[in-house]
Design a protein that fits this description.
This protein is of the alpha+beta class. It is built from ten helices and twelve strands.
Length: 300
């Protein structure tokens, strides 16, 4: 699955104002990212890529599933595909992060498909010069479009990096059936969140017990099903509110809310301001199109 849930992350709008917002985004299959950053603070998300964080300065709390780790300088934190994880910043950390598909290191793909780390933290791993140098080389070579020669160099550095990390990593058997079920449910929600979408609807459509679905959301995502669906709707609403030609009423109904009143109340809960205030911050003084905000209801 290629969707990533980022829950309550620190989102910067166009005016530079920080907003606590639950939102979803989609990464592109086959691509990878490599960069140095500060302040590692991403909410619960999952994706089909491998994620490796190397902490340079400061410390961050990292979570995989329900387990918490304290990531300190020189530590490596590694997450396998489709593991739900998130970070809580402690200070303005400095870190290296690599996000890549398993096929970039096909020699290890069987491990990514059948195993998960027994311990996601490798203490002091950046003290290994081959690990540190490989991560820095990947970052230095990375750009939106690499030549075939650069791609070969990058793949070589990934193989060296993973070869060294797997020597230090304890792996355990994964439960592929549970991961497949989570991905199936999240994909269905992504496709239908702007329609009437209740827990019973998902259970019936996917032939999965509704109590089991509820259990998975609580255990894996740390939120209820309804909360998750509302977060998807508010995410899309924020995108649409940046388009001044779309009225707030049309935004509300377009993302699946039954009335503008419900939409406004939910938006304030998740974003901390009204949709109109959010649009004003994003677009400045651009006026929205005049359209009466009727209170007729539609299926939620």
């Amino acid at each position: 699955m290629r969707q990533i849930l980022r829950n309550f992350c620190n989102f910067q709008n166009k005016k530079g104002v920080g907003i606590n917002l639950k939102f979803f985004y989609e990464d592109k299959p086959g691509t990878y990212s490599a960069y140095k950053g500060s302040r590692l603070d991403f909410g619960p998300h999952l994706h089909g890529h491998v994620e490796i964080v190397g902490m340079l300065e400061g410390c961050t709390a990292g979570y995989v599933e329900s387990r918490r780790y304290e990531i300190k300088p020189k530590d490596i934190f590694i997450v396998f595909p489709n593991q739900i994880h998130f970070y809580e910043s402690r200070m303005d950390e400095q870190y290296i992060i690599l996000l890549f598909p398993t096929d970039i290191a096909d020699k290890f793909s069987y491990l990514f498909n059948q195993k998960v780390p027994g311990d996601a933290l490798i203490s002091g791993a950046l003290e290994d010069p081959q690990i540190y140098d490989s991560m820095c080389a990947i970052i230095n070579l990375y750009k939106p479009e690499n030549t075939s020669w650069e791609q070969m160099q990058i793949k070589g550095h990934f193989l060296i990096l993973l070869g060294r990390l797997f020597e230090k990593l304890r792996l355990v058997e994964a439960d592929p059936r549970e991961l497949q079920t989570v991905n199936l449910i999240l994909n269905f929600c992504m496709q239908h969140f702007n329609e009437r979408l209740l827990l019973e609807d998902v259970a019936q459509a996917l032939h999965i017990n509704k109590y089991y679905i509820s259990h998975l959301f609580g255990e894996k995502l740390g939120m209820g099903f309804g909360d998750y669906v509302r977060s998807l709707r508010i995410t899309q609403a924020c995108r649409l509110l940046e388009k001044p030609e779309i009225s707030i009423t049309d935004v509300a109904y377009g993302v699946g809310f039954s009335s503008t009143r419900t939409f406004n109340r939910t938006f304030i809960k998740y974003v901390g301001m009204t949709p109109r205030e959010y649009r004003k911050l994003q677009l400045g003084s651009i006026a929205e199109p005049a359209k009466p905000e009727a209170m007729q209801t539609q299926p939620e």
